[in-house]
């Protein structure tokens, strides 16, 4: 059989919508400067779908610095993998400053977050070890876990009893194999917006021998007194054995980093295949990340404004009886009930008539019959934009409840 035949017959759970949805619901083209307002299909929309938490994506100091770094260095330098010919003093400076910021002994900067966490999990565990991870972990964690040739157990999302039961299972196995246990959670879960129960997880260290890896992509820069993330917010940063975050959220950039004890980070540096065999992060990006980190540390008003907007948006949604789940972060989900067809009409109404652009999530990412609209507040949103969004959500909720979107005939937009 031709290996391609299988996907010609079945494009997958999302691919099956390609003919009708591509270019609008899937792979939409957003244009204009990154900010709270952008253009979609030639029309201005209020933007709620980019992780520009602190507004650094189009910050004038960042734009100027990025331009200067690109002019001075170009995008090729340094050439080669860091282990061979791609190391610079600036890469090391960024790592030193990141480690100090998140209160860890050492850190290691990697090219991409997704690629990095997959590779780190692969490097950290052997077939003798057991991974225990949250069932709603990001796809990058799931893919990393899938590479593991030993046992792995998923515990029910943020359910500490389930975690403990799986730790007991893991301990029985490692007592026979001589391996160890790696627990993986997230600082903030990107769909639900709820923080991982890090305080409760680390409390189990007194009963079970495990190490904890936390992916804090959405917490870094947004949570904690200084912005050092969910561990700082919950008072357990020191108990996180390997702290990970990406630059793609609050830093509005490219790349990621791991932080922890020096020997652990050094091990990752020498054993992460995705970094050993990949070109070094270009110097303009490294210097740009140093500039972003400096702004994050020296301008607490950016995070303060972000949370002013988060609270205003989330309080407004709750006052309108809209379901935002159990979020306790900036990520703001709005849950509604409806079919896939209703979801498409609802989103088209939002974008075409209310000029609101936000991400839509449907089955198979969430259960059938559910619609998830995810809003990402930023420090650059205005009160007026939030008010317009709240009014729009109130109206589409009323239409969905009354069946208006069931009556519309689906047509490609």
Report what the structure shows:
It is built from 16 helices and 14 strands. β1 (30-31) and β2 (37-40) form a beta hairpin. The longest helix has 20 residues, at 300-319. The strands form three sheets. The protein has a seven-stranded mixed β-sheet with strand order 4-10-9-8-7-5-6, sandwiched between helices. Strands 1-2-3-12 form a four-stranded mixed β-sheet. Mean pLDDT is 94; it is low at 409-413. The protein has 413 residues and is α/β, with parallel strands linked by helices.
What are the salient characteristics of this protein?
alpha/beta, 413 residues, globular, seven-stranded mixed beta sheet, single chain, Aspartate Aminotransferase, domain 2, 42% helix, 16 helices
CATH topology of the largest domain: Aspartate Aminotransferase, domain 2
**Structural class by secondary-structure content:** alpha/beta
SSE topology string: HHEEEHHEHEHEHEHEHEEHHHHEHEEEHH
**Cα gyration radius (Å):** 22 Å
Return the CATH architecture of the largest domain.
3-Layer(aba) Sandwich
Quick overview:
42% of the residues lie in helices and 16% in strands. The protein contains 16 helices and 14 strands. Helix 3 packs antiparallel against helix 12, helix 4 (89-101) runs parallel beside helix 12 (283-298) and helix 13 runs parallel beside helix 15.
């Amino acid at each position: 059989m031709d290996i391609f035949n299988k996907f010609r017959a079945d494009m997958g759970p999302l691919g099956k919508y390609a003919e009708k949805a591509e270019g609008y619901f899937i792979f939409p083209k957003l244009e204009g400067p990154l900010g709270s307002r952008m253009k979609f299909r030639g029309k201005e929309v209020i933007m709620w779908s980019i992780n520009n938490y602190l507004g650094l994506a189009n910050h004038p100091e960042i734009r100027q610095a990025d331009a200067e770094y690109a002019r001075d260095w170009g995008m090729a330098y340094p050439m080669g993998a860091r282990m061979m010919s791609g190391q610079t003093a600036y890469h090391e400076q960024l790592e030193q400053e990141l480690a100090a910021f998140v209160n860890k002994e050492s850190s290691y900067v990697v090219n991409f977050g997704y690629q990095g966490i997959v590779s780190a999990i692969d490097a950290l565990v052997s077939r003798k070890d057991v991974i225990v991870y949250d069932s709603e972990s990001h796809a990058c964690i799931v893919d990393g876990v899938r590479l593991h040739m030993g046992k792995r157990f998923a515990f029910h999302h943020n359910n500490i009893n389930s975690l403990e039961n799986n730790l007991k299972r893991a301990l029985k196995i490692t007592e026979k194999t001589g391996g160890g246990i790696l627990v993986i959670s997230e600082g903030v879960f990107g769909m639900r917006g709820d923080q991982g129960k890090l305080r409760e997880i680390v409390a189990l260290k007194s009963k079970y021998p495990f190490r904890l890896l936390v992916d804090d992509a959405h917490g870094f820069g947004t949570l904690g007194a200084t912005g050092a993330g969910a561990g700082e917010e919950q008072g357990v940063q020191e108990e996180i054995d390997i702290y990970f975050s990406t630059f793609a959220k609050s830093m509005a950039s490219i790349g990621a980093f791991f932080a922890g004890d020096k020997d652990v980070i050094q091990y990752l540096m020498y054993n992460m295949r995705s970094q050993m065999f990949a070109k070094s992060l270009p110097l303009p990006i490294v210097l740009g990340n140093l500039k972003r980190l400096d702004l994050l540390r020296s301008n607490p008003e950016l995070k303060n404004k972000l949370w002013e907007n988060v609270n205003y948006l989330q309080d407004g949604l709750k006052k309108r009886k809209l379901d935002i789940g159990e979020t306790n972060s900036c990520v703001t989900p709005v849950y509604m009930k409806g079919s896939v067809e209703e979801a498409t009409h609802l989103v088209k109404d939002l974008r075409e008539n209310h000029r609101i652009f936000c991400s839509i999530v449907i089955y198979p990412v969430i259960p059938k019959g559910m619609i998830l609209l995810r809003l990402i507040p930023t420090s650059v949103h205005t009160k007026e934009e939030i008010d317009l969004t709240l009014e729009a959500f109130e109206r589409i909720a009323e239409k969905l409840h009354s069946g208006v979107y069931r009556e519309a005939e689906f047509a490609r937009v």
